Amino acid sequence: MTTEAHTESTEAAQAPTGVLLTDVAAQKVKALIEQEGRDDLRLRIAVQPGGCSGLRYQLFFDERSLDGDNVYEHGGVEVVVDRMSAPYLAGAKIDFADRIDQQGFTIDNPNAGHSCACGDSFS
Asked: Tell me, which GO biological process terms does this entry list (predicted)?
């Protein structure tokens, strides 16, 4: 039994089911929440219909807790994904870029078959 449990744990670690936040993104989210002056905010990530590819990402701060929310913790930051968005975001990695050619949050989503050039929408 111990061997099976170890194998299942290893497989689960190889196939992430939640949203991952890089250390850089977690630090940026934490700094933005501190600027708001509130300690009850969490980063909510959702998928909504729209955009040129069919679905659009939404990232915003939220104090609400909704039925079916999935909550992940990264670097002291809580990331919340609603029940409907979770399958679209399983294994997605959120990073923050601050370069001359790109600034803002980026999402590397293994579930996106096609995305537009702007990176805001996918299908």
From this structure: iron-sulfur cluster assembly
Per residue in 79-89, pLDDT (tens digit) is: 999 999 999 99
Write down the architecture of domain 16-118 according to CATH: Sandwich (2.60)
For residues 89 and 45, what is the distance between their CA atoms, to the nearest angstrom? 9
DSSP the chain: -HHHHHHHHHHHHHS--S-EE-HHHHHHHHHHHHHHT-SS-EEEEEEEE-STTSEEEEEEEE----TT-EEEEETTEEEEE-TTTHHHHTT-EEEEEESSS-EEEEEE-TT-S-B-TTSSEE-
Task: Say whether pTM exceeds 0.70.
Answer: yes
